[in-house]
Amino acid sequence: MVLVVVMGVSGSGKTTVGSRLAAKLGWKFYDADDYHSPENKKKMAEGKPLNDEDRMPWLCALHDILRREDAFGQDAILACSALKKMYRYVLLSGALAIASNQPEESGENEALKILFVHLDGPTDIIAGRLEKRRGHFMPPELLKSQFDALEPPSAPENFITVSLEKSLPEIVLEIESIIFQGEAFLE
Asked: Looking at residue 134, what is its pLDDT?
């Protein structure tokens, strides 16, 4: 059973890559944007970046989805910005990570095993994508705040970084090959 979080700033292609990968593998796909509260969507649509307080209930709900899929042995992919290390900790361990500021290592609420796939690329490419995107609550003006908040994953986190300068099929193939090369490590 494998859980993957495709992460990055708004406009990096999380939903596109995650949904394409899930369709190719026959796995469940979740888009974190679908789980934002109406208040969070309104705030972002008004050009106001979310703060940690806005994000914590949302991240805990996403953790609960991943925990449920893990309990049922279901492979799943979540597209989620997961910009800060603390946000990734919450995805791994839920509300327990908020108090301890780290994922749970063992015990009844052991942290989930998640592969974080960081879609990374130049600001100008991502800004161009955002300018072309229609019907999304996240305005291009908030891109700078996303890059300001971004804490790229680092050891000991379980992650890979993939360049979004590649084509969509190349990105999906790269992630797929890494998942299957390291599947034993993820379980």
From this structure: 58
